[in-house]
Amino acid sequence: MSIEKVVGVGAGAAGFDPAFERGGTGDDSQLPTTDMVLNIGPQHPATHGVLRLRLTLDGERIAGCEPIVGYMHRGAEKLFEVRDYRQIIVLANRHDWLSAFANELGVVLAVERMMGLEVPVRAVWLRTLLAELNRVLNHLMFLGSYPLELGAITPVFYAFRERETIQGVLEELSGGRMHYMFNRVGGLKEDLPHGWLGRTADASAAVRKRLPDIENLILGNEIFRARTVGIGKLSPELVAQYGVSGPIARASGVDADLRRDEPYLAYGDLQDVLRVVTRPDGDCFARFWVLLEQVKVSLDLVDACIDKLASMPAGPVNVRLPKILKVPEGQTYAWTESPLGINGYYLVSRGDKTPWRLKLRSASFNNISALPALLPGTMIPDMIAILGSMFFVVGDIDK
């Protein structure tokens, strides 16, 4: 007897064992069977949003995986082509809503490179500081939400406590909690409020002091370790083949970080502070551990930027530009080490006030692209642990 079922978990359907329904023992060794297709998503709590995974199952073991993306596609790259360079920033900071400042940064760096603009040194250091604060916010979200997906509820409350501490100083500076719109072509929107550096230093110290609460709560938990250690091993070869980057790649032993390897902003002057965190295991636990360690590194960089800015004399944080901004004809490629990995911005200009083409290379898309090679052979419950440890934002996949 041949049985073939297509089950849509995202739509609320539930699978069953045909042998048990007939009163059997569940031993399918006497039954010829065919593969079952299981749809995880597009609306499913395991998928971080409207991502759909089409799984081919052999019993409870995954035989194949096809990520189906595009449910949140908004045509951002085409919208870039009909917006001037100032308007693009408001669109660019939304595809990865957990890394808004980093998204803005890549766009303005590409435009400034094309125009040959030299940004004031005070703005360079302040951009570096804000980029690292944004990185801390991004990582804290995943540090809280990942254990939640594995059944641990408490860590998310600790993570959000630390996020609110950082959000407080960023909101004071920019007026925004998620979409800061603080970058401008040629610098930043405005200078710091009086006493802001001191309050940011206090926020950094508070987060650093309380971070061991999250670490002690999760890393030694035997259930968390059972669900993550040795699960979802991603080899350096797969990292290279699929262009995986950021903390996921470094958790597989790939020692690469644009902040060190191709310094931009003020990272060239912070090499003695910047520590590239790697781990050779390549499993879910390693990816979580690297993310946690990177928060500590970012806080070190935040403190170093605060010290530098505090010793720096007052000065401009932007460059005066014409009302209508036109970029010279040509092309350039700028890339940054965003919180989730490498973001690339390929800008082509024909001398107009809008780009002829602005192609975005997002980290999340490449990270998810490795799933068809990573998931086969694993069990369905492990799929939840693996998917959550790939640290992606659906809007960053679809754009």
UniProtKB/TrEMBL annotation:
Location of this chain's protein in the cell: Cell membrane
Top-level EC class: translocase
Domain of life: Bacteria
Alphabetical keyword list: Cell membrane, Membrane, NAD, Quinone, Translocase, Transmembrane, Transmembrane helix, Transport
Catalytic activity: a quinone + NADH + 5 H(+)(in) = a quinol + NAD(+) + 4 H(+)(out)
Domain NADH-quinone oxidoreductase subunit D: 150-323, 325-399
Transmembrane segments annotated in the record for this chain: 373-394
Pfam family, any one: Complex1_49kDa
Entries under PROSITE patterns matching the protein: COMPLEX1_49K
Topology in the lipid bilayer: Peripheral membrane protein
Enzyme Commission number(s) of this protein: 7.1.1.-
Chain's role: NDH-1 shuttles electrons from NADH, via FMN and iron-sulfur (Fe-S) centers, to quinones in the respiratory chain. The immediate electron acceptor for the enzyme in this species is believed to be a menaquinone. Couples the redox reaction to proton translocation (for every two electrons transferred, four hydrogen ions are translocated across the cytoplasmic membrane), and thus conserves the redox energy in a proton gradient.
Oligomer and partners: NDH-1 is composed of 14 different subunits. Subunits NuoB, C, D, E, F, and G constitute the peripheral sector of the complex.
Annotated family: Belongs to the complex I 49 kDa subunit family.
PANTHER family with a match to the protein in the record: NADH DEHYDROGENASE [UBIQUINONE] IRON-SULFUR PROTEIN 2, MITOCHONDRIAL, NADH-UBIQUINONE OXIDOREDUCTASE 49 KDA SUBUNIT
Protein name: NADH-quinone oxidoreductase subunit D
Organism expressing this protein natively: Kribbella yunnanensis
